[in-house]
Write a structure and sequence with these properties.
alpha/beta; 7 strands
Length: 266
């Protein structure tokens, strides 16, 4: 959406910013005076842009595009118009519940294409520009789900394991370049994720969740400080630590008790 004011020298890109953690991350940028380019694959991204204009004096533009596709990512990159990027916040993601073999294949693939392929394509294209400019910060929304085999969320957890690992590899490759990489690793957070992933009949879908604004603030601060990762919330820190010393088979069994259909708290 076009705006009348001129561009500022401070510019952030946030994907998956129509709601939840992504919208809250965009608010953090806006409050610090950054122009914003936000993207999501739904019309609500335009509503989010209107909301964000009240959080700062910067310019806010939105792009509705499917970030699971190269064409969608290309639309977002085109909207950058060659501007120097301070923050690339790769937050867009999808989840999907139920047993893998019971999932619709197109939906399962969409999770992988959004969480992995679209994310790394965007980072590949924009990260090169940031490295060439010798400055910038990249924030990737991973998850503590990446530390454990996700029975009844197998594709989602697998995709987050990829992102958690990828972020640290890229961070090492970019050392000394002026570009930092941070991985935000939340646990269960109070967003639309669980409804969209068809997890409302599960224990994990009905348990107490973190506030997305708190999660986003921790991620944003870690990015600004150039930290490698941030696990939000003490319970999630404990869970992540336990995952590192617990056999994978046991973790998968435990995850079933949280994510299998019909395990919801009543």
């Amino acid at each position: 959406m076009a705006q009348s004011q001129a561009y500022s020298e401070k510019f952030s890109i946030v994907t998956g910013a129509s709601s939840g953690i992504g919208l809250e991350l965009a608010k953090c940028c806006a409050q610090d005076g950054y122009d914003l380019l936000i993207a999501a694959d739904e019309p609500d991204i335009a509503t989010a842009a209107e909301q964000l204009r009240s959080f700062g004096n910067g310019r806010v533009e939105s792009v509705e595009c499917d970030l699971a596709t190269e064409e969608g990512v290309d639309r977002l990159i085109e909207a950058v118009r060659g501007r120097s990027v301070d923050h690339l916040i790769a937050n867009a993601g999808r989840g999907l519940g139920k047993a893998f073999l019971d999932q619709d294949w197109k939906e399962a693939r969409h999770v992988a294409d959004t969480n992995i392929i679209g994310t790394i394509y965007l980072i590949h294209e924009m990260g090169r520009r940031m490295r060439d400019a010798g400055r910038g910060r990249i924030l990737i929304t991973g998850s503590i789900a990446g530390f454990m085999p996700g029975s009844y969320q197998a594709v989602y957890n697998g995709s987050k394991a990829f992102l958690d690992s990828f972020s640290y590899a890229l961070r090492e490759e970019l050392k000394g370049s002026g570009v930092t990489v941070t991985c935000l690793m939340p646990g269960v957070t109070d967003t639309e994720f669980f409804e969209r992933a068809d997890l409302l009949d599960t224990k994990i879908g009905t348990e107490e969740k973190m506030n997305p604004a708190d999660v986003a603030r921790q991620g944003y601060d870690a990015m600004m400080n150039g930290e490698g990762q941030v696990i939000t919330g003490w319970k999630n820190k404990v869970q992540a630590a336990m995952a590192h010393v617990t056999p994978a088979e046991r973790l998968a069994k435990q995850h079933s008790k949280e994510a299998a259909p019909g395990t919801a708290k009543h």
